[in-house]
């Protein structure tokens, strides 16, 4: 510790690490120490706090260099184990994106699995095509490779380790499958992601010790922060990291391919950052608890960028397994693994204690003022509300003949059945009327469909149109949150606008 | 407690077979899950162990197919204990232990009659074995 006893430097800490007498605590242990002995004592006693997280990090991938074939090829398109990889640079440099999916085994196998297989030492098959040039004459190539055959195998993840993440719920009538996993209807479950008080960025929220050049734990081996991640949003506590590391040295335990049904593939990444306790402020910051970390409950059933925010919840509540959403108790589970997050922070602690991992100061700290903007769109996309028109309705108990007349005079094919408050009860089509005539039925109740598929005014027209196709129907009554009918859209409206 | 999976066909679906058996044998029967429509379906029941043979026979005499529900298979090598499955489980059969490892309570798990967790597992560590057709017979106790 320096003279005043109020600060210490990374050099001082590294000397202690090399001598084997650095005091290293995991973030969990640090919180307990600060709670029992206070910040001052914790600062005096602790040199490094290790953090960790293990979650699905979609913007992950690896750059590989396969070496040149003979005759050489300038790869145009290539596939590894059936997963298309891209050629971001010269002839035989390829990028394996974690979310690229196998063309045969869609969702079940993807880039994340390819990276995991390579890291595990498995043999993968590479197929490539090219157009052929004078210097690179070859046009097709097939071979098998292991990581040992690659010149470089660098994990380069451009958005990892979000500081915190949303809690996801679904208010709709149907199960939805998202990158936040399977969400049951009517808030029957909730999911969240992130390690809360163990998360690296949460333990150093002003990024005092993190930035380009910070040596970290990445996928089971040393790696580096190379800057802010894409969509880094520090003002909103949604900071994240861009990282890289030598994947040849990584372990499949901390780098695992994943499948999200009806969404796609991803990769779980184990990432931990050592935080040097340079001053009392950092001792205090690393004492942050789950009850101090809040996130928003977001309704993922609304297919828009700005989804409804249904309130705040702390990571303590999330980790308890039950939260309250709109007055209802909802069971919640984590998508990221707390067990593995702890293992990351513990492994990093062991490396430092054993003197095999020293700390680095960032050459440039992570920015705290980046603004994350939505996309500039030059073309507006239509929403249901832009296309819907007033629905022709009838009430229960009306005679079929009267309804048939209305269909003819209004020249339409659908009549929506409502109650006296305007709430949706059913739908009748001209085909239903025709059938009623053929079968001699007179009561509306015998022919109306009561299980009606609907649309919401604020949903994109495209999702409503998809729903019509899925259910093989030609119109959707548009209802508000109270289930009152506010309009109708038909497949004709959609095809006029979207040109299908 | 013993679990039996009762499969009824189109004709049996509208008959109160389970109710008749409950009354006739005075058996305390818990219905754990039921998926029935007018085409038939299946009911997962739980009854005291000592009545298993008697009740299974009673169902079979009425022409109903009786099988043992197949359990969910969890590959603990693949599972990295994220816990996505926990809140989905309708009978709270999945929990984390003190080491934060996800554990399945096979006694509570409804097996392949439920399977709600299977397609939510990002590690694809959960498998549900479908019972195939109506030819499965109850495993005889020895």
Mind explaining what this structure looks like?
- The complex is a heterodimer of chains A (about 500) and B (about 140).
- Helices cover about 25% and strands about 30% of the residues of chain A.
- Chain A is an alpha+beta fold and about 500 residues long.
- In chain A, strand 5 and strand 6 form a beta hairpin.
- In chain A, helix 2 (about 25-35) packs across helix 3 (about 40-45).
- Chain A starts with 9 loop residues before the first helix and ends with a helix.
- The mean pLDDT of chain A is about 95.
- Chain B folds into 2 domains: about 1-65, ACT domain (Alpha-Beta Plaits, 2-Layer Sandwich), CATH 3.30.70.260; about 70-130, 2-Layer Sandwich (Alpha-Beta Plaits).
- In chain B, the strands form 3 sheets. Chain B has a 4-stranded antiparallel β-sheet with strand order 2-3-1-4, covered by helices on one side.
- The chains are: A alpha+beta (about 500), B alpha+beta (about 140).
- The interface of A and B includes residues 177, 260 and 330 of A.
